[in-house]
Structure formats: structure tokens, C-alpha cells
Specification:
Elements lengths: L1 H10 L6 H7 L9 H8 L3 H13 L3 E6 L2 E9 L1 H4 L1 H20 L1 H18 L4
Antiparallel strand pairs: 1-2
């Protein structure tokens, strides 16, 4: 699935790396602090800063003042980045439909249920 998402993004002119995507996909709707992105992506703050700098230079994200704390900055999805989201979501839906066709609806539902349950122990930010 990941390869198909990245291939589709590349075909649409978006050169995003898996490391950049790992940070990008964790940006909250209203923006996120760099420290939160680093923690959620399970990388150092320096690595997150490096990746956010790359994303910012490419126009996918922007840094804005945090309305809750004038000393802090938020990383927010920029217009170019917002265009990635429906592209990726479309590929995910397409792959999931293919999997459902192959597995059948019952087994696909069981797969979703199992993955949801596993998320309880695998994702501290669920």
C-alpha cells in the first residue's frame, strides 16, 4: 500500500520521502508543535526539525505562531500539502477495495478488527 501511495504522489509531482510522510501524517488539523511531532513519530526533535524544514521548503507545511503561546510555533499543513491528503486517501481506499475483493467482506472486517485491537498495544497515540 505504501509503495502505491508514494508512486501516486510522485506521478502527481510530489516528491515526498517515507521519513517526511511519517512526520507529515501526524500534523493535527489545527497544527502541531515540533516536539509533539517528534514524539509521535518516535524520532528526535532534531530529526523532526530537519524533516519539517524539508517539508516547509517544498511548500507542504508552514510554521505559524501558536495562538495559545506566543513563544511557540506550530507546524501546519500548507495548501500544497493539503492536496496530498485526498490523493493518498484515494489510493488507500483503492487498495482496501482490492483487499476486500480478494479476502471477502467477512475476512476484511476481521482484519480491520484485529488491526484495531493491535493498535491498543502498538500505538501509544491511538
Amino acid at each position: 500500500m505504501e509503495k502505491r501511495v508514494f508512486d501516486t504522489l510522485a506521478a502527481a509531482g510530489h516528491d515526498l520521502t517515507p521519513a517526511q510522510a511519517r512526520v507529515f501524517q501526524r500534523i493535527a488539523p489545527g497544527g502541531s508543535r515540533l516536539t509533539d511531532l517528534a514524539e509521535q513519530a518516535q524520532i528526535t526533535k532534531q530529526s523532526a526539525g530537519f524533516l519539517v524544514n524539508q517539508l516547509e521548503r517544498a511548500g507542504y507545511v508552514e510554521r505559524v505562531a501558536d495562538p495559545a503561546d506566543a513563544r511557540a510555533r506550530l507546524v501546519r499543513v500548507a495548501d500544497r500539502g493539503a492536496r496530498l491528503i485526498p490523493l493518498a486517501a484515494g489510493v488507500v481506499a483503492e487498495v482496501e477495495a482490492e483487499w476486500a475483493a480478494h479476502l471477502g467482506q467477512g475476512r476484511m472486517a476481521a482484519l480491520r478488527d484485529a488491526l484495531t485491537v493491535l493498535r491498543e498495544i502498538a500505538d501509544p497515540y491511538a
